[in-house]
TrEMBL record:
Residues 177-278 form the Peptidase M20 dimerisation domain. The active site is at residues 81, 142. InterPro entries: Bact_exopeptidase_dim_dom, Pept_M20_glutamate_carboxypep, Peptidase_M20, Peptidase_M20_dimer, Peptidase_M20A. Keywords: Hydrolase, Metal-binding. This is M20 family peptidase. It comes from Peribacillus saganii. Pfam families: M20_dimer, Peptidase_M20. One of its GO terms (molecular function) is metal ion binding.
Length: 381
């Protein structure tokens, strides 16, 4: 299987180049759909059934199975959107330097699109029916919280035995077994304006009120327990000689588990309602939007299977946890054993110049994905 994939590297690199050179930011429906149309065509050429979930605002989502009626037990999730705007692909198109490929979205996660396709091709070429046990979701809005695809993923996860999410693999052949949950809260403070030189005592400064809250929010951080709270954006006031009548803050929150999520939401709400400057009012909006990816029953068995397959391929698979969120959260909350980071090795996602995928890892990590599908297929309920 590995030698087959090695022989297909020119094809794989060619497809990767085609995908990377298409702008497909989350808000650019036309570009995401271009990527989706290529993926749809490739899987239909493989003889698979592709259902298109049409969207009006964001790109369409793809749901792919061996045929319309089959009921596979392994779900694989990939996302077609990137964080980059229109024109980025033209500004820095796909290029290969040494053993690394560069370009917008090359690692996050267009190399994974190619890997999934060729993993199934390899299984089919090898005479294995394991490709029939796969239910693929290619969604278009992962980078903005899977707003319209979350329900599709959750529905597809029902009754599944295993979930493989193909965000990029990590250095040292690592896969991801835990991810933090992600939340966003907005504080909107209303005060009362006054002339700062003539009658400042009549004013109620929304900025000063917000300043008290910012300190309280930052004091919630507990990095050792995996909790981070970051006031990353503030705005307020109308001029330097006016007591500020309004101020706003945007807060990013990362949590390790759902217990933490509930506790921190309560504390943030309490801080919002605490009044330091009499006569100000604070509205709070937002929530923990993407739950954490936690290890569920069966996750350790899944990881051990991947490690065993890796060992047969001469790889020493390790596991890591990370602060970034992904769609893996939506399968773990459904109780499905999940491992993320099953794509080719890459680093510096979202970077404007450093993001790369390690081409040396491409055939081997694709073989790891294919053989894991094959091994798991022998353990299905």
């Amino acid at each position: 299987m590995e030698s087959y994939l090695e022989s297909k590297m020119p094809e794989m690199n060619s497809l990767l180049k085609e995908l990377v050179n298409i702008d497909s930011g989350s808000y650019y429906k036309e570009g995401v759909d271009k990527v989706g149309n290529i993926i749809r065509r490739k899987f239909e050429e493989l003889g698979m059934y592709v259902k298109v979930h049409r969207e009006t605002e964001y790109g369409n989502h793809l749901e792919i199975k061996c045929d319309k009626e089959c009921e596979p037990k392994i779900i694989i999730i990939a996302h077609m959107d990137t964080v980059f705007g229109v024109g980025e692909a033209e500004k820095r198109p796909f290029k290969i330097i040494g053993d690394k490929a560069y370009g917008p979205g090359v690692s996050d996660e267009k190399a994974s699109h190619v890997a999934v396709l060729y993993a199934l091709k390899a299984l089919k070429e090898n005479g294995s029916d394991a490709y029939k046990n796969v239910h693929l979701i290619f969604n278009s809005d992962e980078e903005i919280g899977s707003r319209t695809s979350k329900a599709i993923i959750k529905e597809a996860a029902e009754g599944k035995d295993f979930s493989l999410v193909v965000e990029s693999g990590r250095p040292n052949d690592a896969v991801v077994t835990e991810r933090k949950g992600v939340g966003r809260f907005i504080f909107d403070v209303k005060g009362r304006s006054a002339h700062a030189g003539v009658e400042p005592e009549r004013g109620r400064s929304a900025i000063v009120e917000l300043a008290h809250k910012v300190i309280s929010l930052q004091n919630l951080n507990d990095y050792e327990q995996g909790l981070s709270v970051n006031v990353g954006l503030i705005d307020g006031g109308i001029s330097s000689n006016t007591v500020a009548p309004e101020a706003k803050a945007q807060v990013d929150v990362r949590v390790k588990n759902m217990k933490q999520a509930k506790e921190i939401t309560a504390k943030i709400t309490e801080i919002a309602h605490d009044e330091h400057i009499k006569g100000t009012e604070t509205e709070i909006s937002g929530r923990i939007g993407r739950p954490p990816m936690e290890k569920v029953e069966g996750a350790e068995t899944l990881l051990n299977t991947i490690k065993a397959v890796g060992k047969e391929l001469g790889m020493s698979i390790t596991e890591v946890s990370t602060g970034g969120g992904s769609d893996a959260a939506y399968t773990t909350t459904e109780g499905v054993p999940t491992v993320d980071g099953m794509g080719p090795l890459g680093e510096f996602s979202h970077s404007e110049k450093d993001e790369y995928v390690d081409l040396k890892s491409f055939p081997k990590r694709t073989a790891l994905l294919a053989k894991t599908i094959e091994r798991l297929s022998s353990h299905l309920h």
